[in-house]
Structures are given as structure tokens and as C-alpha cells.
Automatic annotation (TrEMBL):
Provenance organism: Azorhizobium caulinodans (strain ATCC 43989 / DSM 5975 / JCM 20966 / LMG 6465 / NBRC 14845 / NCIMB 13405 / ORS 571)
Residues annotated as domain MgtC/SapB/SrpB/YhiD N-terminal: 20-139
Subcellular location: Cell inner membrane; Cell membrane
Classification via Pfam families: MgtC, MgtC_SapB_C
InterPro entries reported for this sequence: MgtC-like_C, MgtC/SapB/SrpB/YhiD_fam, MgtC_SapB_SrpB_YhiD_N
Name the UniProt record assigns to this protein: Protein MgtC
Annotated membrane topology: Multi-pass membrane protein
Gene Ontology cellular-component terms listed: plasma membrane
Length: 238
């Protein structure tokens, strides 16, 4: 039998140690995720670590370290598909990025165990758990710090509403006023608002502005004839 010919006790025991290490490390990482009721919990992280260890250990046993490195590169790219499955988009919010990153780290832990880097596997496990637990108070503290509106990078737009026949003149006026305020225009768009009115929307190149300066531009536009409405806004979503 091929099994009897290929079976060697010491390499087999080495594989057992690698699998046990991957199982324990994956369980430690997954326990924290399970406690917080995340999408990928205890079993998922254990299976990811064991799977990565199995692939790398098999490659190393058959073809040596060079082939193990090749398999690790496939594990790194392949785990991305699994991580994408736990990322959910709810309206403007994206959830699951941290859990997906944790799965990626579990695969790295398993790969370390699979190539007999047990110390590195346990060390990486400590850092992953620390990142998911010890940094939470720091993240919460940072999130509570108030942010000044003018310091937020965003997409800024200035718009005015005018009659259809004045669209060309008002378009040039809007661009001229913004250029004079040192806010170059990246894009100008004319949007129909009924049969008699249009809205001219200027998207600024700048990602940081002074609110008072745009307020002054808007106030100046409102004093011009044929300008029915003018305003500016900021969009912080990508």
C-alpha cells in the first residue's frame, strides 16, 4: 500500500503538533470574535487556521520549503474571498471589515504553524487578540473626540438656481467667484429643475475649506440678479 510506504512516524508527529498549534491559536482568536457575536466566530477562525496549516504542511512535506512558500501566497490571496463574505454594506455603513481582517490573520497563524514556526504562530496570535481587545478603549476614546468641520476631508459643492435662459451667464459667474476665492472648480454640472429653472452645481478641487469663505461666496451670489437660490454643502462619503 502507498500509505505504508509513505508513512513515517516522526514527520507525522510533526504534522500533529502543527495542527494542534493551529487549532489552539485559531480557537483563541475565534473565542474573542464569538464572545462579541461577530459573523465569523470560533469555528470559522479555527477552520481557517487549520486549513492554512494543512495546505502549507502538505506542500512542505511533499516538495519542501520553496513549494510551501508558493502555497502560502495562494492562501494569502484565497482568504480574501472568504473575508469578503463577512463584509456587509448597510446603507452608507460598511460592517465586518475587522472580522475579515481577523480571518486573514488566522490564516497567517495557521500558515506559521504549518511550516513549524510555532513560536511565531503563538506570538502572532497574541498580537491579533491584543489588536481586537486592548485597542478597543483607544478607538472609543478617539471616536469621542469632536472634529472641527473645516478639518474634515470631503467633497465640497457650491450650487445656485437660476432661470434656464441665464444658465450660461450664471455658470461663468459661479466659476469666476469660486476662482476668485481660491477654490478651483473640478467639475460643473447643469441640472434641470423643471421647465423654467436649472441648478448649476460646482464641485471643488479642494478637500478642505473654510466655511466662512464659502458663506461669503454664497452671499455674494445671492445679491446678483437672476440667482433664485444659492448654497454650499460637504459630502464626507467616498
Amino acid at each position: 500500500m502507498k500509505f505504508i510506504e509513505s508513512f513515517h512516524l516522526l514527520p507525522f508527529l510533526d504534522t500533529v503538533v502543527s495542527y494542534v498549534a493551529a487549532f489552539v491559536c485559531g480557537a483563541l482568536i475565534g473565542a474573542e470574535r464569538q464572545y462579541r457575536q461577530r459573523t465569523a466566530g470560533l469555528r470559522t477562525n479555527v477552520l481557517v487556521a487549520i486549513g492554512a496549516a494543512g495546505f502549507t504542511d502538505l506542500a512542505q512535506g511533499i516538495a519542501g520549503d520553496v513549494e510551501a512558500v508558493r502555497v502560502i501566497s495562494y492562501v494569502v490571496s484565497g482568504i480574501g474571498f472568504l473575508g469578503a463574505g463577512v463584509i456587509m454594506k448597510e446603507g452608507l455603513n460598511v460592517r465586518g471589515l475587522n472580522t475579515a481582517a481577523t480571518l486573514w490573520c488566522s490564516a497567517a497563524v495557521g500558515a506559521c504553524a504549518g511550516v513549524d514556526r510555532l513560536a511565531e504562530a503563538f506570538l502572532l496570535t497574541v498580537f491579533v487578540i491584543a489588536g481586537n481587545t486592548l485597542l478597543r478603549p483607544l478607538v472609543n476614546a478617539i471616536n469621542r473626540i469632536p472634529i472641527k468641520a473645516e478639518s474634515i476631508e470631503a467633497t465640497y459643492t457650491v450650487s445656485l438656481t437660476t432661470a434656464v435662459e441665464q444658465a450660461g451667464v450664471m455658470r461663468d459667474l459661479l466659476e469666476e467667484r469660486l476662482e476668485a476665492a481660491s477654490y478651483p472648480v473640478a467639475e460643473l454640472e447643469v441640472v434641470e429643475r423643471g421647465e423654467e429653472q436649472v441648478e448649476i452645481v460646482a464641485t471643488l478641487t479642494s478637500t478642505e475649506v473654510e466655511g466662512e469663505e464659502l458663506d461669503a461666496v454664497v452671499e455674494g451670489l445671492l445679491t446678483r440678479p437672476h440667482v433664485d437660490h444659492a448654497t454650499w454643502s460637504a459630502n464626507t462619503q467616498s
